[in-house]
Design goal:
This protein has three helices and two strands; from the N terminus they run αββαα. By secondary structure, the chain is mainly alpha-helical. Strand 1 (about 20) and strand 2 (about 25) form a beta hairpin. The longest helix has 28 residues, at about 60-85.
Length: about 100
């Protein structure tokens, strides 16, 4: 049986379950849940039998990791450049401001 069909069965089971008064909870038959879960476990290996072996082939995970590393490297370089610009005085600093009444005579 297809895993999506089993997920639909679980959804129906919860949707049609009896409500527990004054809560958002429902009562479901534990055995029915376990039966559907067992069917899912039995189905998943069959679904994966035809799947591409991601260990041997260039996978999405490796590409995603490389992309993440590149993004982090770029972000660090930008941050370092930004920090360097803030530290280096590219323009003369203005004299400290004082209030008119605070000027010493």
């Amino acid at each position: 049986m297809d895993v999506l069909v089993l997920i639909d069965k679980l959804d129906d089971l919860v949707h049609n379950a009896k409500s527990v008064p004054m809560t958002d909870q429902v009562r479901v038959d534990k055995e029915e849940i376990y039966d559907i879960l067992d069917q899912m476990r039995a189905t998943i290996p069959r679904d994966q039998a035809g799947a591409v072996d991601r260990q041997g082939a260039p996978g999405d995970a490796r590409r995603a990791k490389k992309e993440a590393e590149r993004v982090i490297k770029d972000a660090r370089e930008r941050q370092e450049g930004w920090s360097a610009r803030r530290r280096s005085p590219s323009r003369p600093s203005a004299p400290p401001r004082t209030c008119r009444g605070c000027a010493s005579s």
